[in-house]
Amino acid sequence: VAFTGDLRDKRTFPSDIFDVIIHLGARVDKRFWESDDLYKVNVEGTANLLVQYPDSKVIYISSADVEREILSRYASTKKETEGLVLVSPINLVIRPPSVFGPGDKHDKLIPRLFRKYREGADCKVLNNDENEHMYVEDLAKYIVSNIDKHGIIRPNGFRIRNLHIETMISAICHGEEMPELKSGEQEFFLFLERCLAGDRST
């Protein structure tokens, strides 16, 4: 059963009893990183959830960003929140890499590149770093298949360089083919095509 509420206000939470809560709520976009709201939602909001449902198992969707040597303000809130969640030995923290999928409006590379090639929005790839990405449906399957676990687990995504992603998205938006893709790249390309198809249907 899906439910929404304002993490900052427990009065917006449903009064139901839940065996398991999959907690995905957070401030993510960089426009919130310098805001007090980042901490209020990500850390204090999760604390509210844990107080409201003390008998529920909480599966907290964190971020692989917490594993970096230098943490952003966003990653710092995720890391602190993990500590709150793991006070209960039955809870589970999942650290996915960067997640993408249809309808994604976050200020991240893949949505920005689709806006660039579909709408002419400004987006310049500043480096050709290799980063890890995970399709949203793969993450959903991973959560369900690991629902009985506890502690911290880390799913693997697909590692790909930024400029290769741009080449793929440019080809998709212009209706061009991408020859000689490797097996993992072929699957990633198909996931990107789903993103465009999903955006067009909304």
Total DSSP helices: 6
The number of E-state strands comes to 7
Gyration radius from CA atoms, angstroms? 18 Å
Structural class: alpha/beta
The H-and-E topology, N to C, reads as: EHEHEEHEHEEHH
The CA-CA distance between the termini, in Å, is 23 Å
What do the pLDDT scores average to?
A: 92
Q: Please outline the major beta sheet.
A: 4 strands, parallel
What proportion of the residues form beta strands (DSSP E)?
5-15%
Characteristic terms for this protein:
single chain, 202 residues, alpha/beta, four-stranded parallel beta sheet, three-stranded mixed beta sheet, 7 strands, 14% strand, globular
Itemize the secondary structure elements and their pairings.
Elements: E1 20-23, H1 36-52, E2 57-61, H2 73-85, E3 92-94, E4 98-100, H3 109-119, E5 130-135, H4 136-145, E6 151-153, E7 158-161, H5 162-173, H6 183-201
Parallel strand pairs: 1-2, 2-3, 3-6, 4-5
Antiparallel strand pairs: 5-7
Explain this structure to me?
The protein is 41% helix and 14% strand. By secondary structure, it is an alpha/beta fold. Strands 1-2-3-6 form a 4-stranded parallel sheet, with no helix packed on it. Strands 4-5-7 form a 3-stranded mixed sheet.
Could you write a compact summary of the structure shown?
With about 200 residues, the protein is α/β, with parallel strands linked by helices.
